[in-house]
Design goal:
alpha/beta; 43% helix; 2 domains; 317 residues; eight-stranded parallel β-barrel
Length: 317
């Protein structure tokens, strides 16, 4: 009987919903490079009303394009809020408008969000998370994936399994775990071993997130967490082709990164976007500087420059 060679399953790479970083243009830029299987939008804040369709399209203009980036990568709308009924009504609207499933944010550490009982603040109350997920699951058609993103807890990790099980029991079909608590912010290390505890406790797919900056990081994360699939955030902007690197490609050369920065600048300096450009390009360069010596030199050069034209000159040189 002939032997059947089993191929290793390819990693599924998801672009993280980075608030103020991974907007529609950045999503297009990164997915055009390749390697991504899914994007999650920046969160849409839900309070006490059904938002008009124009809000969803403003935050996720890919809805005009079959909920895909220009490169054809599907995007899933993410909602953030604490009222189960309004979350459910807005979730139904997002999916009806074409979102590829629906994601719920239980991990945002921003102070303004948390003081209004959104994002990571809900990690202190697994029952509230359960009620939100359950209500949203009832509103979202069964053929649409309902996913959630969490951290390991608010200020300790003792409830991480309970939180994950509440999300599973309420009907979610995927869970992304950022392997830090809210209080740990983005400080290394990421505690991937806790993702393993969660993965072993629930029977839905678990996606690892946190401190994945290279192929070596991915391999170690997979070994510790037991997760094949990953969501990448800051690493995705530090190495713009990181998704391809995780799938076996080589790290993008500096000359390619520089051309990408120029392309980004050409769009971000048009019209009303221009006033935000200096802050945004410096934000991006701060991440690139972590992985490229030339990027560090460029960041040091432009970080005190306020003029868009002077920043563009520095890029051109």
């Amino acid at each position: 009987m002939p032997l059947i060679e089993l191929k290793e399953r390819s990693v599924r790479v998801i672009l993280a919903p980075m608030e103020g970083v991974a907007d529609a243009f950045m999503r297009n830029l990164l997915t055009d490079i390749g390697g991504y299987d899914l994007c999650v939008s920046e969160f849409i804040r839900i309070v006490d009303q059904l938002l008009p369709r124009k809000v969803f399209r403003r935050m996720c203009p890919e809805l005009y394009n079959g909920s895909r980036t220009e490169a054809g990568v599907p995007i899933r709308v993410q909602l953030l809020g604490q009222d189960p009924q309004w979350m459910a009504e807005n979730a139904y609207r997002a999916v009806a408008m074409g979102s590829h499933g629906l994601d719920l944010n239980f991990g945002c550490p921003a102070r303004t969000v948390n003081k209004n009982l959104g994002g990571a603040s809900l990690l202190r109350d697994p029952e509230s998370i359960y009620q939100i997920v359950k209500e949203v699951r009832g509103a979202v058609p069964d053929d649409q994936v309902l996913s959630a993103k969490i951290r390991l807890g608010w200020d300790c990790k003792s409830q991480c399994v309970e939180i994950a099980q509440a999300i599973r029991d309420a009907g979610a079909k995927e869970l992304t775990v950022h392997a830090r608590t809210k209080e740990e912010g983005y400080k290394p290390p990421a505690h991937w071993q806790y993702i393993k505890l969660i993965k072993d406790s629930i029977d839905i797919p678990v996606i690892a997130n946190g401190e994945i900056w290279s192929k070596a990081d991915y391999i170690k994360c997979k070994e510790v967490s037991g997760c094949d699939d990953v969501m990448i955030g800051r690493g995705a902007v530090a190495i713009p082709n990181l998704a391809r690197v995780l799938k076996g490609g080589d790290k993008m050369q500096w000359c390619e990164v520089k051309q990408l920065l120029i392309k980004y600048s050409e769009i971000e300096t048009t019209g009303s976007k221009e006033k935000y450009y200096p802050q945004r390009i410096k934000q991006w360069l701060r991440y690139i500087a972590m992985q490229y010596t030339e990027g560090q030199e460029l960041f040091i050069r432009v970080r005190s420059i306020k003029s868009t034209n002077d920043i563009l000159k520095a890029l051109a040189e």
